[in-house]
Fold each of these.
Amino acid sequence: MSSEQMETQAKTKLAILVKSIEPIVESQLAEFTPAEIEYILANFRKHLKYDLTRDFEQSREKNLKESPFDAIINDDLGFNNE
């Protein structure tokens, strides 16, 4: 895959991810009262950013730690079942 294709594919998937989060946030925000919203904005503003970097880092670490051979070594494929 070329660098340009990778960039396009990655940007598209990231846009889909972000767009899929928006309805959940809107739905949950509908449960807050105006007073709660004001309080949260006044007191917790610095905590209102969702950290996608953390999630991507965790996914990368998981992918680095897991090997396609893990299933064979751990007999998850059932080859040694009699």
Amino acid sequence: MHLSISFPVAGAVRPIVGIGDLVVATALFAALMRIGYGVGESFAVPLGGMVLALGVGLLVGGAPALPFIAVVTGAYVLTRRPKRSPPPVAG
């Protein structure tokens, strides 16, 4: 409860977004940017997974966000090509 964004739902305070969800979403944002996706889509795709998890969680009384973030991001990467080439890897 201390490392999450919580809201009252049905008379009880429930964690909505945890610190782990934010860390993973940030890592995905950085990774998508690095491999050539634009800023907007790199931000919107992981956020879309979190919003989907939020909707499902509010309907059923809670749902972990990481599977939703992973599925949405994975589906996006598999169906869309980056707009630009990724930078060369040093080494």
Amino acid sequence: MRDSGRTSADDAVERDLDVAWELFAAQPTHPEVAELALRVLAVQPERSSVSLLLANHREVCGQADEARRLYLQVAGRNDRQFVNAARSLRHLALAERDHAEALRWARTVLGEDHEEWRDWMELGYAEALCGEHEDGWRRLDEAVALCARTAPDELPNALGQRAAYLLGTFAPPDRFVPTAEEAIRADAANSWVALMLGWSYLVQYRFAEAEQLGLRLLREDPTEDLLQNLVGTARTMLRIVENAHAQDITLEDIRRTGVIELGWRQLRDQALGADLASALAALDEVMPADLRATLRPGVPIAEVPGSDKLGSAVAEDLVAWRDGQRPGSGATWGWAEPFRLMSAAEIVAMSAGIEADPAAHPDWPENEVWEQVMTDDAGAHLVVVALGALVKRRPGHPDEPVAASMADWIWDRVAEFGGPDPRPARPAAEQ
């Protein structure tokens, strides 16, 4: 029997709302979600929960600006849905990599509700993204402890989230590994954390453990390239260790090259969308016309004569993107010094010359890792060295640090040209 205070119109509204929520849960991008929500709001525009449902739908459909407008509209009412609107605005800011805005809303949420462990986890993540690394990482630990006390059934989720957030804020492997191991003990099916744990083992020179973990993961997903690469790298390093004396190679020699650490950072940056390929794609979107006009079309590496002398994947990525830049045009980058991209032919020719007469090139030692990628056409170069750092090398002078990596240098240009910068703030140890 119908409640005497309700009408058939009220029943129709509630039916629409129930269907909208059910449909959103099953197919969040379905256009009927918006139709149903708007139908309810036409009758009851004050229902903030329905506005939030519509905003969630807009967000997952990629309509971020409209979602933000609706979230802010609900937040402005300062009613019982305020904290949920603030959480949604925090989520949207993180998705758009607006770290400062995410931190502001994370603090706003905790001004309303101190009981939810996820809110503390999000605050720690936002703090670390903004450069407050030690405070943020400590907050992640506190969120896990709060979850263990108040929602023990959710602890595996909290442990996995902490590991992912440590990785996403450039925590060093020594800090990430114990948390990842704890997360895997709680949830062995968390394959993404397990993969990053395996690469962390490599960075710690725990090659046998990396191999065993990789093999376990491959049994579950035998076609995953990253897992095959993990196992292959671990086995290669084990063979080098076993044959160290015969090959006159030591672990210290391997550490000096920084090749494993570089591989770890490249994989991590790729997972975060902050790698060189992502930076070059972002640069294409905001590049000034005068810079674009000086760049040559890219070439496939397979078509580059002597490509084995290009060095690591950094030069290969750059050449595939743009095969160098017109001589004398370095000023178009708008940087402090007029360095321009080198072409594949220039890199190969220079490397061959150094290899043919090392004594004539004392600034380019044989026993170190380096690859020249830019030149000022006056004898100086920007060079990628061990651990992927970008330095300026001038004849007769010590190398001068320029950026943590070539990707960082490109991201700096993207930001200066007005594009979005997705990078978390780096810890001091990584600068």
Amino acid sequence: MIKTLFAKSGLATALTSEQLYFVTDAANKGALLGIYADETNDQVKLYFKDNGNTAANEVLTLDSENGKAETAAEAIIDAINGLLKNAQVVKVSDGVDSVNGIDGVDFPAFTVANTDVAITATATDDFTFTLGSATIGCTFSATLAMDDESHEFTKTGAITTATDTIKFDSTDFSAGAATITVTLTNPNQQDVTEQVSQPATITA
């Protein structure tokens, strides 16, 4: 009997780590080699042999609920062993049904560049921050806050390219130290998020 682990974020082809994996003997491509429950980072990692598909990764990372990584990993093992309703296909995470304790498919970390920005007296939308390696299809919430708590501004939207830019209106800001915080969220799996926060210097 061939069993399959199914993981889907709903972000189309933005994540190459979500695939159909066949659980067979270790000699075959795509075989599951091991499962690691990472309670520190609230993740479950499934390690596979190269399945011959160039679009696939060898590690499928799943975000788990706080303190439930080991429980989720055991549930996946039970399913593979045929103990969970004797299922042939196990939905690890598809945005609707999933293994108990799994929030969804993890997406990669991203970066924020251009942290030294200048104020132009007559300009608007001139605080521009560029993302790197952002996951397409995610929604974003970005906050630019002056460290002296004088002003704070938030922008929201959706990621359309891995290098999307986020712009803020300069009208209510003055020169000084600030902090930019950007959070990406999978709209299909709301508990799956990535956040980057770092200093930004506003110059006159």
